[in-house]
């Protein structure tokens, strides 16, 4: 078993990723997380949006998943991105990790798969079905005017423009340094077990502070949200969000999910739960 202190070093991760290739999912998988990735959870209500005790205007609505631009930090060998893509996050997913071994491996194995062809076919089928449904509705709404009806149906079906599935990106980037993205780039950031790894290393407080600032900067104003999945209890994690009220207008919302029985950190810690921390800009 590895010592916790190793998790904060890129040398540790490079060596581990060299030796153990293949999929490895820390903490929780997408099927649990997706319950939290809904506009209802990600768009905080008006009364949570306070700065210096003053109520702010209601935050913006979170966009539907097909329009979301997503940044996954410390992606490792997790297949969260692929599962999200498969489930309709087709607007662009960027995976970053500071381990160059990890990113090279992810690029090599990812390029060989046919996920895009499958997802595009699914999107096309759903688009056609939706269009047919609308067309049938128009038909029944305007039964009395057969001529008009036929012209609507043929126009809709002949001029389908299918949403294009965006390819995922994999970049070797240290999330605790300045991020190479403009302000307002992403709708959603997911940090699953990466905060915990960073906290194991030297100079963690300064690094986490900078990571929080950068994550807030690259999230879109009004609705951009960051989801952090951690083994840390609220009393040990909340300070990283709470001291940052200017960054996270809605404060932090905390959820508890049972741990599945996998992963080294699960065995090494006493709690039976992981916590999900959600902050919105
Ligand atoms: C515990 S693993 C979690 C991997 C993956 N997110 C998952 O849930 O399966 C932590 C990951 O964070 C990455 N990581 C640690 N510190 C990082 C940093 N400063 N910048 C980017 N990635 C980092 C490590 O290389 C490792 O892949």
TrEMBL record:
Note down the stretches annotated as region Disordered. Answer: 126-150
Q: Which UniProt keywords apply?
A: Methyltransferase, Transferase
Swiss-Prot/TrEMBL GO biological process terms: methylation
Mention one GO molecular function.
Answer: S-adenosylmethionine-dependent methyltransferase activity
Name the residue ranges with Basic and acidic residues bias.
126-140
Q: Where is the Methyltransferase type domain?
A: 165-222
Looking up InterPro entries in the UniProt record yields: Lys/N-term_MeTrsfase_sf (IPR051419), Methyltransf_11 (IPR013216), SAM-dependent_MTases_sf (IPR029063)
Q: Which domain of life is it from?
A: Eukaryota
Extract the Pfam families matched here: Methyltransf_11
What family does this belong to?
Belongs to the methyltransferase superfamily.
Q: What is this protein called?
A: Methyltransferase type 11 domain-containing protein
């Amino acid at each position: 078993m590895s010592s916790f202190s190793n998790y904060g070093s890129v040398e540790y991760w490079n060596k581990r990723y060299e030796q153990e290739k293949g999929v490895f999912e820390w903490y929780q998988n997408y099927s649990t997380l997706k319950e939290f990735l809904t506009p209802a959870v990600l768009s905080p209500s008006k009364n949570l949006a306070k700065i210096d005790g003053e109520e702010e205007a209601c935050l913006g609505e979170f966009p539907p998943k097909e329009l979301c631009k997503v940044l996954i930090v410390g992606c490792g060998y997790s297949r969260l991105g692929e599962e999200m893509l498969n489930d309709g996050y087709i607007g662009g997913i960027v995976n970053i990790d500071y381990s160059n071994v990890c990113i090279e491996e992810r690029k090599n194995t990812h390029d060989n798969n046919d996920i895009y062809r499958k997802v595009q076919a699914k999107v096309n089928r759903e688009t056609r079905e939706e269009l047919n449904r609308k067309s049938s509705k128009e038909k029944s709404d305007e039964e009395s005017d057969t001529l008009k009806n036929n012209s609507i149906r043929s126009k809709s079906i002949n001029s389908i423009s299918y949403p294009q599935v965006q390819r995922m990106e994999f970049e070797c980037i240290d999330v605790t340094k300045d991020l190479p993205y403009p302000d307002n780039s992403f709708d959603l950031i997911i940090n699953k077990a990466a905060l915990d790894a960073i906290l194991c290393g030297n100079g963690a407080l300064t690094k986490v502070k900078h990571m929080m600032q950068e994550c807030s900067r690259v999230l879109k104003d009004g609705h951009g949200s960051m989801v952090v999945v951690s083994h840390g209890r609220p009393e040990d994690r909340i300070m990283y969000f709470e001291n940052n009220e200017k960054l996270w207008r809605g404060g932090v919302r905390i959820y508890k999910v049972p741990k599945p029985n996998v992963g080294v950190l699960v065995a090494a810690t006493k709690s039976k739960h992981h916590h999900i921390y959600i902050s919105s800009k």
